[in-house]
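MODEL INPUT / OUTPUT PAIR
PAIR INDEX: 1
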Amino acid sequence: MSNNIPDISQLNAIVKETIDALEEGKAKIFEISEQAQNEYKELKAKLHLIQEKVQHIIKETELLEKKELERRKKLMLVSKNFNIYSEDDIKGAYEATKDLQIKLALKREQERQLILQRTDLEHQIIKIKDIIERSEYLTSHVAVAMEYLTGALFNIGNTLEDLQKKEILGVRVITAQEEERQRISRDIHDGPAQSLTNILIKCEICEKLFDIDLERAKEEIKDLKNLARDSLKELREIIFDLRPMSLDDLGLVPTLEQYTAKFQRDTQINVKLNLYSNEVEIDPVIEVAAFRIIQEALNNIKKHSQGTKCSIELSIENNKLVGTIKDNGIGFDLEEANKPKQNLKYDSGFGIYSMRQRAELLKGKVNIETEQGKGTAVKFEIPLCVGDNAIETEEE
C-alpha cells in the first residue's frame, strides 16, 4: 500500500465520522424540506380560497355595476321629468344611486385587497418552492455521497483512487440529470405552461367579448391562434432537445443538418458541414452517441469558445465513424480541464468527460486538441459495430 494512503482502520474511522455527520446533515435538510412542504401545502390551500373569493367578488362587483348603471339611468329619468315625479321621488332615486355607488366602491376595494393578497401568496409560494427544490437537490447529493461511503469506501484498499473517481462521476451524473430535469421543467414552465395560461385567459376574454364587441373578439381569437402556434413551436423545440425524432426517422446526417441550421440561427455562429453520404446506414446506437458528442461540442462552443465559426466533418474510415468539430474560439487549458474537480457541480470538465464516456462505451475514443487563443478541435472515432457484429459500410 502506498505511504500516501492511510491505514484501513483509520480510513474506516474517518468514513464513519463522515457518515455520522452526513446523517445529521441529511436529517436537518429533510426537516427543512418537510417544513417547507407543509408550508407550501398551506399556502396553496390559502391561495385556492383567495382565488375563489376573488372570483366571487368579481361576480358581485359586476352585478353591482349593472344595478348602479340602472339606478343612474333611473335618476336621469326622474331628474328630467321633475314635473311628473315628486321631490321625494327624486331624493329617493338620488340616495339609492349614491348608496349603490358606495357599495360598488367598497366591493372594488375588497377586490383590490384580495388581488394583493393573492399576489403576495403567489410570491411566497415561489420562494417556498425554491427552498423545497434546493433541499431536495442537497438531499440527493448527500444520499449519493452516503451510498458510496457506506458501500465501497469501507473496503477501499488499493482501489481508493478508482473509487474516488466513481464517487465523483456518480455525483456528477446525478447532478447533470437533476440539472437537465430542472432545465426542462423551467423550459416548460416559462414557455408552454405560461402560454397555456395566457390562452385560458384569452378564452375567458373572448367569451365575454362575443356579446359586447364581436370585432375585438375576432382580434383576440387571432392572438389566441398565435399563442397556440408559439406554444406548439416551443414544445417541439423541447422535444427535439430531448431526442430528435428525425434521428430515428431520417438518420444522423439529416438530423445534424437540421440541428446545425437551428444552432446557426440561435447563436449567429457559422457552421460548415462536411458529412458522409446519407445513404450509408449506421446502427442507431452509434448515431445517438455521435449526435450527443457533437451536440455537447457545439454547446461548449456556444458557452465558452467566443468563436464566430466552426466546422463539422463526419466520415467512414476503416469501418469506423470518424468525426471532427473545430472552432475558431479562444481555446482553453486542457490540462487544467482534465484535473479532478473538488467542486462536484456540473461543469465544462464533465462535458469533456461525458463525450469520452459515450465513445468509450462503444469501444471508441475522443481526443481534444486546443490551445489558448487558437481554438479547439474535438476528434472522435467509434467502431461501426455493436457487440460482436460488425456493420459493413462503405462510403461511395
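PAIR INDEX: 2
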Amino acid sequence: MDIKTQALLEVIKAYLNRGNKIQYDQRCMDRKLITTPRRDKYVSPETATGQKTVFLDCSSFVNVVFWETFGYEIPFELTWHMVDYFEPRVFLYERTYEETPEEIEEIKQKIKDTLKPGDVMTYDRFSGSGHTLIYLGDGGFAHCTPNGRPNSYDYQEKKSREYEDGGLFVIGIDDLINEKIFQSKTIKRIAIERPLDIVDEPTEKTMARLTTAKALICGVETSHPGGQHATKGENVTYSVKVKNNGEEDKEVLVTFTVPCGATLVGAGKAKETLSAGAEKTFGFEVLVENDEPLYLEGPEVTVNSLKVNAPKVLVGKKANAEEISKVCSLTIKEIESGKTAVEAASVAYEEIGILVDPHESQHIYNCFYIHDTLSGDVLSRRAQNPEKDMGVYSYFGGVTVITPEKVSSPHIRCNKTLRRDLSAGDIILVADDNYGLCTYSAFYNGEKLIGKFEKDGELKTLSGEEINAFIDSLLGQHLFIILRPSLAK
C-alpha cells in the first residue's frame, strides 16, 4: 500500500477513535441558512475531547479527512456538486430504474472493480441531496451519518439528542450497494472520485501518526473549558491525555510550549513508557500575564512529534467576588421590580463602574450584522470584542445566524453551550426577530436564572435541570447571545 493511502487510513482511524465526541448534524451548515453552523470543516481528530463535542455531516467528514491528511480542501460541499464537478471522477452511473437484475449485478461488480482505498463514493437523489463516503479497502466504507436516527439536534423541540455511538461508522460494501443504493427508489446517480491521484504528499503531522505517534490516542483539556475565562495572575492547567492503543509498550514524550500571554509554571516536557492499553494524563500549568479581552491561544503540544490540538482559553477582566455578589443582589431586586434582565443589570453594574446599555435591541446591533439574502434575512457575528460588546467569545447562535468560514474569520465559530459556560453576572439575551423588536433576557447569579424566557412571558426563576433545558434550547431559538459585562470592566 502506498504512503498516501496509508496516511489517509491512519487519519480516518484517528477520527473513528473519538467515539461519541463526534456527532452527526446535517442541519449545521452555513448554506442551509436555517441554523448556526456547528460543523467545522477543518477540525482535527484531537479536537474532540471530553470537553469538546465535534459536529460533522457526510461531506464535512470527507473534507476534514483530506484536509488533516494532506492539507487538501475538497472544493465542493453539496453531494450533487461532488457528483458533477469533483475530479478526478473514475466512475459515474445514472439510474434508469429499468435495469434488469443481471444489469444491476454488472453495475455492482463494476463499482467493486473500480474502487481503490481512499476513493470517495458519492450518490445523489432526485431532490439534490445525497451521501458521500470514503472507501477503506477490504469492502468497508467510513462515513458520517445519522445511521437511521434523527439529527443530533431537534430544532422543532429545541432539544439536543446526541448518541452514545456517535456519528462515525464503517459500513460494508454489500450493505451499502445492495440495501442503501440499489433498493432505493430515490437514488439517481452514483459516482466514484479519486482525490488521492491529485493531492500532495502527507503533511509532517500526518507522517508522525504513521511513525513516532502510531497507535497513540491523544487529547488536551483545560481547567478553563468553554465559556469559563481566566484573568491576569490566574493559573491555567492543561491536561494532555494519552492512551497507548497498540499492542506493545511505547515510550511517550510530551512537549508543551507556553502560549503567548502566559508564562510556564514548572517543566515543559514529560516522558513516560506506557504499556499496551495504558492511559496517562500529563499536566502543564501556565500563569496568565495580562487581562486584556482575548484568547489565550492554544499552546503547542506534541506527543512523540505529533502536534495535538489544544483548546484556546478565554482571557478577560473579572469583577471580584464582592462586586459580583453586589451586582447579583441588586439585579435580582431590580428584575423583581419589573425591569428586564438587561435593564436591571444596567442599574446594578453601574454601581461597580461598568456601563451596560439598558436596551436589549442595542446589544443585538452591537454583536451582529444583518444580511438580506435570497433565502431570507440572516445574521452574522461581528468581530468579537468583549471589551465593547460584552459578548462571551463564541457563545451565540440561533436559526438565522451564520458564521464565517476558515479564511475570513476562523475564530468566530459558535460553540455548544453548557451550563458550565456561564459565570455569575452573565446575561442570556434571546430575540425572536433580527431587529430586536421581540426580545427577552435572563440573569444568572451563579445558581439560578432569573428573568423572562419568552416574549411577554411571566417572570420566572429557573434552577437545576430547568437551567440545563433552557440552555439546551438556545440553538433552536431565532437568536441568542451570552453577555458578560465584567469583561468590559
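PAIR 2 NOTE: The two ends are 59 Å apart (CA to CA).
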